[in-house]
Write a structure and sequence with these properties.
Blueprint (H helix, E strand, L loop, with lengths): L31 H11 L5 E13 L5 E13 L3 E8 L2 E8 L3 E6 L7 E6 L5 H6 L6 H8 L9 E4 L5 E8 L2 E8 L5 E7 L5 E12 L11 E10 L4 E11 L10 H7 L4 E4 L16
Parallel strand pairs: 6-14
Antiparallel strand pairs: 1-2, 1-13, 2-3, 3-4, 4-5, 5-6, 7-8, 8-9, 9-10, 10-11, 11-12, 12-13
């Protein structure tokens, strides 16, 4: 579970019913203004998002045997940079992925004898440091994965490689992200994150869209995916995240208070990825 926070490769296989060559599918016309309008309407009032989550991880152990793990927790987002994903069992949280305006972190207290945190500053993030964080996705990229962040001004809109789709491409600090949208509804159904070398690091599928409750105005009905299914090729892991009871209710500030979390959780080992003595390629070497 340590390295399996988030999300899964969708492979579309087409087969013809006759040996005749299929007629070429016309590429859809791209209207960036219409896409932005539809996106904004779907994500209205999602500057905050709270939901219960269940995470199921399918992977293999060191001997190649199938392993399935399940955990429950909560996802809390306060844009633009507040992220808190907590996971555990039987009401006890053991894993924390988070970020605030300044920094990101991963806290692990699965082993009571080795409670540790890995952290760094957003402004100093590199692809190597993101990899050293030990989880498949940077916390800020999690907001991108959920499809609730406003589309950036520099996003590129192009006809999709798949019939009936439009692609929205944007740059990330650790590579690039491509949304695959339904050409009619402009709803995201897939997202692909690529490393700087162009290789796919994560591919996710969105399913079962649902309405998120807006507490002070039930007439507004933003939509979020009920399931996010992700595959991380490098880890041979499939992660299924189910969201329940999503709403935009206020979130306690402690969820994004790194220093308070470190003290409250009694974390005794902290590795600062930005420290001069920290080797971002080494998964050990935590700094007390």
């Amino acid at each position: 579970m340590r390295r399996a926070i988030l999300l899964v490769l969708l492979v579309l296989v087409g087969c013809g019913s006759t040996p005749e060559a299929a007629a070429p599918v016309p590429r859809v016309e791209v209207d960036p203004a219409a896409i932005r309008e539809a996106w904004a309407k779907r994500t209205e009032r999602l500057e905050r998002l709270w939901a219960r989550v269940t995470v199921v991880v399918d992977t293999v152990d060191e001997e190649g045997k199938p392993v399935k793990e399940q955990a429950e927790g909560h996802l809390q987002i306060e844009q633009p940079r507040g992220v808190s994903l907590t996971l555990g069992k039987l009401g006890e949280n053991y894993l924390y992925l988070g970020s605030n305006d300044e920094r990101y972190w991963w806290i692990d207290r699965v082993d009571s004898d080795r409670r540790y945190a890995v952290t760094g500053l957003h402004e100093l993030i590199t692809s190597r440091k993101a990899e050293a964080l030990g989880v498949p996705v940077h916390p800020l990229e999690l907001i991108e994965f959920m499809g609730i962040k406003p589309l950036p001004e520099d996003a590129e809109f192009v006809p999709g490689a798949e019939p009936g789709t439009i692609e929205v491409v944007r740059s990330l600090a650790t590579g690039s992200l491509t949304w695959v949208l339904d050409a009619v509804t402009a709803t995201p159904n897939r997202v692909v994150v690529k490393a700087p070398d162009g290789s796919v690091s994560i591919s996710a599928r969105h399913e079962a869209y649902q309405f998120a409750r807006v507490r002070d105005d039930l007439r507004i009905r933003p939509r979020v995916p009920g399931r996010v299914v992700v595959e991380v090729p490098e880890l041979s892991a499939r992660v299924r995240i189910a969201l329940y009871d999503p709403e935009n209710k206020p979130i306690r500030s402690v969820a994004f208070d790194y220093d308070r979390l470190i003290r409250g959780l009694k974390i005794d080992q902290v590795r600062d990825l930005d420290a001069a003595s920290s080797d971002a390629g080494n998964t050990e070497g935590y700094l007390p």
